[in-house]
Fold this sequence. Notes:
The protein is mainly alpha-helical and 190 residues long. It folds into two domains: 14-103, no CATH class; 113-180, no CATH class. The protein has eight helices and no strands.
Amino acid sequence: MTVKHSTGNSSFNDVNYVFPAFVVANMPMGVVGLIIAAIFAAAMSSISAELNALATASTIDFYRRHFRKEATDKHYVAFGRLATFVWGLFACVVAIYATNLGSLIEVVNKFGSFFYGSLLGVFVLAIGVKRARSRGAFFGLLFGISSVWVASHYTNIEFLWFNVVGCLVTVIAGYLISLTVRNEEKVVAK
């Protein structure tokens, strides 16, 4: 039973509603309630963890390091709350925009592909390349992410290949840049 069949709405996109439609159509009422409660609990847990991580990184790694090095804990808590609110608004805007991009799995992979392959390239440099240096890894990462952006806008390759493009460009660019750097510590995976 599809959402289209049960609601009569032919413009409805069934892809993101396969599981909820199955649960509502095939499970007893008490189990449906438990599954809905579990879905909400998992979503709230993930959202709170993400907002907390973003706000903490914004406050400690960005704000305290670059703007207010000496402030009270109360000040940083207030800024952290503001950062949580701003990141929450940003997430809402992205969620509204993302509904036009296709299925949820496709949207996550499209956005993630901009970074996953390039980050893998940094790990490959750290673990597998003896001459890799931190400056080479950093600029290799920038080249990798930039190459994925170029590939997404100017080629017809599928988004899952962006991971391969980002990794290869990061490793090659990072290695070549590392060859030009002298007297710098080697990148070590910790």
